[in-house]
From TrEMBL:
<feature type="domain" description="Aminotransferase class I/classII large">
    <location>
        <begin position="32"/>
        <end position="392"/>
    </location>
</feature>
<dbReference type="InterPro" id="IPR004838">
    <property type="entry name" value="NHTrfase_class1_PyrdxlP-BS"/>
</dbReference>
<dbReference type="GO" id="GO:0030170">
    <property type="term" value="F:pyridoxal phosphate binding"/>
</dbReference>
<protein>
    <recommendedName>
        <fullName>Aminotransferase</fullName>
        <ecNumber>2.6.1.-</ecNumber>
    </recommendedName>
</protein>
<dbReference type="InterPro" id="IPR015422">
    <property type="entry name" value="PyrdxlP-dep_Trfase_small"/>
</dbReference>
<dbReference type="GO" id="GO:0004069">
    <property type="term" value="F:L-aspartate:2-oxoglutarate aminotransferase activity"/>
</dbReference>
<dbReference type="InterPro" id="IPR050596">
    <property type="entry name" value="AspAT/PAT-like"/>
</dbReference>
<dbReference type="InterPro" id="IPR004839">
    <property type="entry name" value="Aminotransferase_I/II_large"/>
</dbReference>
<keyword id="KW-0663">Pyridoxal phosphate</keyword>
<keyword id="KW-0032">Aminotransferase</keyword>
<comment type="subunit">
    <text>Homodimer.</text>
</comment>
<dbReference type="InterPro" id="IPR015421">
    <property type="entry name" value="PyrdxlP-dep_Trfase_major"/>
</dbReference>
<keyword id="KW-0808">Transferase</keyword>
<comment type="similarity">
    <text>Belongs to the class-I pyridoxal-phosphate-dependent aminotransferase family.</text>
</comment>
<dbReference type="Pfam" id="PF00155">
    <property type="entry name" value="Aminotran_1_2"/>
</dbReference>
<dbReference type="GO" id="GO:0006520">
    <property type="term" value="P:amino acid metabolic process"/>
</dbReference>
<dbReference type="InterPro" id="IPR015424">
    <property type="entry name" value="PyrdxlP-dep_Trfase"/>
</dbReference>
Length: 400
């Protein structure tokens, strides 16, 4: 009899964290490493948000709070959903957790039974399938393609749904591709969901405010109000507000589901950090004028990376609508050999050879469920991106 739970055999550690840790180890060993693996803005948290946290500490707001969020933060979240998404929620329909990941996990644990299926478009954020497995469900992967801009079609969604389907997880703009669904593209998916009333929708809108060119963000319950009663709309302050380490995520949905999630949280972590909650109140209620400024920087970086990657023979990289990732295909490089003698059999061997031979850390596509690709996070300086892409160009040009 083994000591560890058999459930652990169903899941794997996060590949993005593994890449980040490997890059850190090489740096500490003296290697010149450029890490493009972490999905974390390099901007500092805005000063008004930091000031709100300091004021909360000085005011002694450092005690336990309500399990799933202070009233002031829930009210700010309700105001945000109404202001940005035309969605009306009350505080008892809101849950605040320790990051967006906890919100998603709580909902899955609260609802999944053995045999329940969850439809997940690929490429996907690495944690979706493993969270489903930890919660006892079965992930059903619906693969997109480069030809559709890594967006799921209505026919693909229809084909993936079975009588066992409980959730459809939807992420736009996407991690890892940056693909954003237009209103019409999303409406085609919600039309399918209307025909399957047993399927609930879990949206991950974490990159809502990171949108470029003429892309306009929309979320499922906004596009199709008839889905309101079976949609959990999830978001957080990590990406747009450069607050990854503050660990505040939130969601709004039907009150019975929120109550079930509260029960899970009450017996696991209890409340999120009190000081972080007060900072999040300021993030949502305070000035939003820095968002377009940051987006201008991100869009410039996106265009820089795209131009350099698409100059490489054998690499194809579509233009993402949002987030801060690109997801180039290396289909034209499979079967080649690196200068150090590594055969590029797949995207994992490509990423490993790239790191070992050039010091550029990226995440291989198989980690996101669709190959042969790799993900670059361009949430770092123009200088680092330029040098990293130059190294990638040199590495690819030397493949034989």
């Amino acid at each position: 009899m083994t000591f560890l739970s058999a459930t652990l055999s169903r899941v794997k550690p996060s590949p993005t964290i593994a890449v980040t840790n490997k890059a850190r180890e090489l740096k500490e060993a003296g290697r010149d490493v450029i890490g493009l693996g972490a999905g974390e803005p390099d901007f500092d948290t805005p000063d008004n948000i930091k000031a709100a946290a300091i004021a909360a500490i000085q005011a002694g707001k450092t005690k336990y709070t309500a399990v799933d969020g202070i009233a002031e933060l829930k009210q700010a979240i309700c105001a945000k959903f109404l202001r940005d998404n035309s969605l009306s929620y009350t505080p008892d329909q809101v849950s605040v957790g320790t990051g967006g990941k906890q919100i998603l996990y709580n909902a899955l644990v609260a609802t999944l039974n053995p045999g329940d299926e969850v439809v997940i478009p690929a490429p996907y954020w690495v944690s979706y399938p493993d969270m489903v497995l930890l919660a006892g469900g079965e992930p059903v992967i619906a693969e997109t393609s480069l030809q559709t801009g890594f967006k799921l079609t209505a026919d693909q969604l229809e084909a993936a749904i079975t009588p066992k389907t409980k959730w459809f997880i939807f992420n736009s703009p996407s991690n890892p591709t940056g693909a954003g669904y237009s209103h019409d593209e999303l409406k085609a998916l919600t039309d399918v969901l209307i025909r399957h009333p047993h399927v609930w929708v879990m949206t991950d809108d974490m990159y809502e405010h990171l949108a470029y060119d003429d892309f306009r963000f929309c979320t499922p319950a906004q596009v199709e109000p008839a889905l309101y009663e079976r949609t959990l709309t999830c978001n957080g302050v990590s990406k747009a507000y450069a607050m990854t380490g503050w660990r505040i995520g939130y969601a709004a949905g039907p009150q019975p589901l929120i109550a079930a999630m509260r029960k899970i949280q009450s017996q696991s972590t209890s409340n999120p950090c009190s000081v972080s909650q007060w900072a999040a109140v300021e993030a949502l209620n305070g000035p939003q004028d820095f968002l377009p400024t940051n987006n201008t920087v991100f869009q410039r970086r996106r265009d820089l990376v795209l131009s350099m990657l698409n100059d490489i023979d054998g690499v194809t990289c579509p233009t993402p609508e949002g987030a801060f990732y690109v997801y180039p295909s290396i289909a034209g490089l499979i079967g080649t050999t690196s200068p150090a003698g590594t055969v590029i059999a797949d995207d994992e061997t490509f990423a490993t050879a790239l790191l070992e031979e050039t010091g550029v850390a990226v995440v291989f596509g198989a980690a996101f469920g669709l190959s042969p690709n790799f993900r670059i996070s361009y949430a770092t300086s123009d200088e680092a991106l330029t040098e990293a892409c130059r190294r990638i160009q040199t590495f690819c040009a030397a493949l034989t």
